[in-house]
Amino acid sequence: xxxxxxxxxxxxxxxxxxxxxxxxxxxxxxxxxxxxxxxxxxxxxxxxxxxxxxxxxxxxxxxxxxxxxxxxxxxxxxxxxxxxxxxxxxxxxxxxxxxxxxxxxxxxxxxxxxxxxxxxxxxxxxxxxxxxxxxxxxxxxxxxxxxxxxxxxxxxxxxxxxxxxxxxxxxxxxxxxxxxxxxxxxxxxxxxxxxxxxxxxxxxxxxxxxxxxxxxxxxxxxxxxxxxxxxxxxxxxxxxxxxxxxxxxxxxxxxxxxxxxxxxxxxxxxxxxxxxxxxxxxxx
Amino acid sequence: xxxxxxxxxxxxxxxxxxxxxxxxxxxxxxxxxxxxxxxxxxxxxxxxxxxxxxxxxxxxxxxxxxxxxxxxxxxxxxxxxxxxxxxxxxxxxxxxxxxxxxxxxxxxxxxxxxxxxxxxxxxxxxxxxxxxxxxxxxxxxxxxxxxxxxxxxxxxxxxxxxxxxxxxxxxxxxxxxxxxxxxxxxxxxxxxxxxxxxxxxxxxxxxxxxxxxxxxxxxxxxxxxxxxxxxxxxxxxxxxxxxxxxxxxxxxxxxxxxxxxxxxxxxxxxxxxxxxxxxxxxxxxxxxxxxxxxxxxxxxxxxxxxxxxxxxxxxxxxxxxxxxxxxxxxxxxxxxxxxxxxxxxxxxxxxxxxxxxxxxxxxxxxxxxxxxxxxxxxxxxxxxxxxxxxxxxxxxxxxxxxxxxxxxxxxxxxxxxxxxxxxxxxxxxxxxxxxxxxxxxxxxxxxxxxxxxxxxxxxxxxxxxxxxxxxxxxxxxxxxxxxxxxxxxxxxxxxxxxxxxxxxxxxxxxxxxxxxxxxxxxxxxxxxxxxxxxxxxxxxxxxxxxxxxxxxxxxxxxxxxxxxxxxxxxxxxxx
Lengths: 284, 575
Hints:
The complex is a heterodimer of chains A (284) and B (575).
Chain A: H1 20-33, E1 41-45, E2 60-63, H2 70-79, E3 84-90, H3 91-97, H4 99-108, E4 112-118, H5 153-159, E5 164-169, H6 173-185, E6 190-195, H7 207-213, E7 214-216, H8 227-234, E8 241-248, H9 276-281
Helix pairs in contact in A: 1-6, 3-4, 5-8
Chain B: E1 4-13, H1 17-31, E2 34-40, E3 47-57, E4 68-73, H2 76-82, E5 86-93, E6 107-109, H3 112-120, H4 126-137, H5 143-152, H6 158-178, E7 196-200, H7 201-211, E8 216-219, H8 226-234, H9 236-239, E9 242-245, H10 249-261, E10 266-270, H11 272-287, E11 292-298, H12 315-320, E12 329-331, H13 336-353, E13 356-362, H14 363-367, E14 369-373, H15 389-394, E15 423-425, H16 439-459, E16 464-466, E17 473-478, H17 482-494, E18 499-504, E19 506-508, H18 512-519, E20 524-529, H19 535-544, E21 550-553, H20 562-571
Parallel strand pairs in B: 1-4, 4-5, 5-6, 8-9, 8-10, 10-11, 11-13, 12-13, 17-18, 17-20, 20-21
Antiparallel strand pairs in B: 1-3, 2-3, 2-14, 7-14, 12-19, 16-18
Helix pairs in contact in B: 1-5, 3-4, 3-6, 4-6, 5-6, 7-8, 7-13, 10-11, 17-20
């Protein structure tokens, strides 16, 4: 039985009161609830305050480049699909620098859980607008206020027929924990966009601001496989912000398309190099 | 060399140049000739003027020559452009189809279209008529060509095969009955038929990767590297390789780093433009000490440059790409054989030193076809340099991915193996892999990584010396120029000169001691490179303090021919 202590306790470089603490706690709790031991788990991350997360729990870690958490996560999952692979990233990392990887990883559908710390601001570089910053938000760079249309990650993911689309909130850890558990259990790419207050740089989208608006999407009659309804729901933002699982489409994962993986992890596969001679014969 | 004949097929893209050229090249190989074939094409699927050139000889050849003996013209431009290359040769052309402005005694009209229609009922057989005509002009037997075509059209059924054979015979007979020069171009096929391969550099590199047990390849298509990706993909099911076309080159290299980190032997293929996008992840490979093989197939840049032509212009880029200082390895094959063996060696170096390793080819080597001795797959070993489960279980201390060791190489475990945790970080990190920004740690980790470069340098073999080691003139080259340079050495020595070649395949880290030992003996050195600034020559100066006397450089998008090099040596008055 895996317990919370297995995942360790570490000193962090996050600001006191940061929404990241809630996300870290929810990830650890979800892994414990699912009885996944640290050595079975790989967390890939990019660069940003969010991407420091794998250093704050015991697990296999690939803390790569800014915006590039998804490609190594995909490669690692192909090489060893027995690993539970999480990609921990942020709004700047995933929707800005790594936007193209986001689009194509959704298309590819590897069995990876993406957890996006979406604080609508750049934290590591101290307060510039992110792709999800609200219109009108003034920053040191956007001195006249943001006027570029914010990216809606959920609508985008649903439009690409992402196989699991959800939104959590760092201020509601039990709800977020359950969401992450379901995302990990889902076979295929699962997006967990997490509303994460940034206490240092985002004075607009605070814990109070979010807490007054969020509500649970779960209601009788909400069908998880209704893409159009899910898209409509994903557009809701303002006085009320829905949380929960928006859309699920069970379909074969990237790894399930690859026949060789049926017999075990790729890295354990003994190369059939003896067949090279046959190929060489073809050139004679 | 008693036989040395050069055949050029010219036409527009889509006219079947490649099919005709390939079938003839295979036929000549079957006849027992040594074959070298190369294509010159523009970046388009239809139209434009392209050529397929085949040189045949009774001894080993690895270069093209510029004078043409037999020109098969499928368009008017072929004659306009290549008439001057004709050396007492013949132009085969169908004057019913092609309007020829030039007046030349060399023109020999064959009504290929008419023959195809009359004999086979369809003009599409005119290429087979032309192949029969070529074999007839060379006074060779038809049988080898017929068996090549039988194999090529096997899937299309008996009727199609028979029509092609009929077309070949008609073309052959037309020549026998009508060519006024008779057997002017007769070449006798060698008695000794060696068990040779006819293979391109890209196919050889792909074979090498398969022999090395590649398990994952992620890449984005880019000419001229795509052939390797295609070759591995075509054989992926048989060899249990996963091939993924990434959304861009950034993803490709990052993806293989993830796969390699988790234990799969991984590689990517690209050309300069794609590699530009990979530079960030190149540094990631090095700081995370993740093995990666990068097949970098050069074409002239910058930016889009000349997409279908050749250049050795990216050496400096590969040497210095990405921020910071870190170890990397660069290998550059000169022949398909070297493509095969060096590809396999690249994987072993990458795994042993946990660094990115380049195999640098170029369009010339990638796309040209060579006859060469059969590759010996049993010479390829797979050395993974991974900790075993029992080694890990026996260890009392917690696993440190970046453990400091005397040679800088940290024993490598895989995530999830024997219950250990493996942590990789693009930040400067401590022995466990966690971020550590202290000055002491930085120095230790930087030194650890750079130490690997010096250990690897000791392992890098000496450059190959072709010809008399004490020759008075030394040609220096690297990578794909081996063929033309070796031929220049043979030609000049036959004429009583004293010339040798020092050829490098192990470029970086440069084997400095071997290099100095060999090159400080040379009285006069000429570095021959397919670029405009002498990038390798500069590397010799910086790394080994070798001052090259003279340079022969070519950067018009075309590969070297022996004639080009000899003319340049004469111009520079070194011969």
